[in-house]
Prior knowledge:
alpha+beta, Beta-Lactamase, Phosphatase 2c, domain 1, 7-stranded mixed sheet, 6-stranded antiparallel sheet, disordered N terminus
Amino acid sequence: MVITDLLGVARMTAITLNERGQIGHWDDTAAELFGAGAPQAVGRPLTTLLRLPREHRGAFEPETFGHVWCGACTLPRVDTGEPAEVGWWVYPIGGEHGISVLALATDLRGLRRDGIGITIGDLLLAPPDGPAGPGTAPRSATMRLLRVEPALTTPSADEPDSVTGPFADRLAALLPALAPAAFERITARVLGLGRPAVSLGLTIRLPIVPPAGPAPAVPAPRPAAAPPRRPRPRRNTPAALEPLAYLGEAGRQIGSSLDHLQAARTLAEVLVPRLADFAAVELLEGVVTDSAPPAAEVDETTLMRRVAVAHNDEPGRWDDAVPEGEALLLPPGTPFVQAMRTGRPVHIRRVDPARAARLAAAFGGRDLRPLFTGRALLVVPLIARGRVLGTFKLLRKPDRPWFDESDLAMVDEIARHAALCIDNGRLYRHEVKVAEELQRSMLPDDPPDVAGARVRYRYRPAGQAAQVGGDWFDAIPLPGSRLGLVVGDVMGHGLTSAAIMGQMRTAVRTLAAEDMWPGRLLRRLDWLARRLGEDHLATCLYAVYDPVERRCTFANAGHVPPVLVSADGESRVLPVPSGVPVGVGGKPFETVEVKVEDGSQLVLCTDGLLERRDRDIEQGLEQLRERLAGASHDLDGTCDDLLAALAARTPADDIAIVAVGCDGIPRDDVATWELEPEPDTVPWIRGQVAARLAGWGLDALVDTARLLVSELVTNAVVHGAGSLGVRLIKGRTLLCEVHDNGPDLPHLRYAEDTDESGRGLQLVSHISARWGAHRTETGKIVWFEQRLPR
């Protein structure tokens, strides 16, 4: 019976149901497994207490109580709702009034753990007390009918008081691994009570993969058909379990790494010397480089690469003959290609000198005959998910026998497990590569070159590839020679987080182009995050640096605050309100302004730089502030120093750093005029602009600038409202801004031949390098740029 094989590896519980399907016994183990205590369970139908899948409920209905069942399912715990994987073994228990049920259950997750030994506690079989007949049980893919057999009945008063007979035989089958004397005492007690009440406490330790030393003996299960007084002879347990122990340990070692090449190297190492004296693993080149899925067909043109070699000869014996990393093209007549084409191992019991010469010829000009001659050769294909990944070959020295059936069976099992591990590692690396490429493609390449500010940034992905996530940063040139700065972190990791990060970065750039106030921009980003999904949360810090006004405006959505370093080297954490992450909704984002003197530095980062196992974010932020105190004006050196001093060697999360040198635009390179919205203002401002450009030595731009300024000021006088002003800024380009209090933004339109207006903006668009318009808190600004002469 299956249950006898599980006594040594999992905690089990016994549950009894009466003929109406109600719970009669519920022990502490059941309470731990299902999350419901005995007062909550006893007297209730099992199918209503536990939310069993529909296909499993039939096993616990009264009409099926005449059958033996086994099955497995996943169901939520009663208390927490967390999923529990449960294996069931259901047995009928008969009495003179009808049939009830004994259900044994175990936590399947426990079977996968390394712990050894179980406790079967307080197994109580409640007496049946109602009529019920055997029914018909439904079949499904996860539950199968083992066999139909009579219910376990207690002896009637007319039967002799004996420890033998059908009752004792059935009880022996349900309670295996008992010594004969102990079983007789339990059976006699049951017969003496006259009802099936058994209290059993039993602990058995069955080693599956012993860490070291010989495996302890395991009591042999009592066969159901044999008399209980005739114990089964014990097998030679250490010898019988040694192959299982070896297979378990080999599988554990091969599967311990997500690196497909490391799994291949471990495969060669576990095979020597237990199964072979020499082992070499050769994979398809596409599998090694992780650039393509395995080939559907293999021929002599398929490029392979030797990735691992292990042997028990003297060190370096075969390094030159069969070096690791060598590329191979194998002829079609070799057993190596034959194994990959047929999908079956090729076993040569003894390689004679002629065959050794042919095999050696397949590997080029090196003489490999000493490696093959007189040895047993086994070539095994590595196949996973129906695709060939490569092969590994095993060689035994002449003084060892060739591979027997037991060896072939173990090698086949190891090959199946290793192929899956290698393919899983390949797929994992491919997914990580895609995630990294997606993430990097969505991050900025080079810092922008803007007037009055220098920008440098650093990005370091998480040390574990699976932690590729949603950290992003950006520096966005804004109208008015201003600079938008953003640092954010999407919660979570993997492809989904990287994709959401790309959407949010694009949204921030789009919203920043509208020249939104930082708090309003975060509100719009929050709305977008909630439209993307309920679980799409992100922290974000957005700042706008104005090199003319020498101020920085911040809004924060749950991100770590920035650090400002003054021109004299004093560093401080800016008191920016933390806010809530975008995607939460319903909360405002406060905007604050900070004066920034020329020569200061502003540093923004993600929490991956600050948080480590040995420190929290607050401690990391304080260390960041201390590290920036007295920082030099070399922003590249500042970024590198922060990574070297604060970041872990293998960070658990992505790290993003943005450092900005706030140099400001000299005041002499800015000219401002306040105008009256009158028609005679237009010729006056043309003259003022021409004079200022001549003073800056930009005579080549005078005529064009006068024309464009005249068009924009005329539009402001005709279509604008309120105050009127003009500002010239000489930076990387010549920027001219015209502002008024009118709410309507100008837009391009095509003028007909008979139209008297509508051609001014077409002229501005055609002559200037760039132009645009955006709203302000008091009105709008229309601007254009001209390239400076070389």
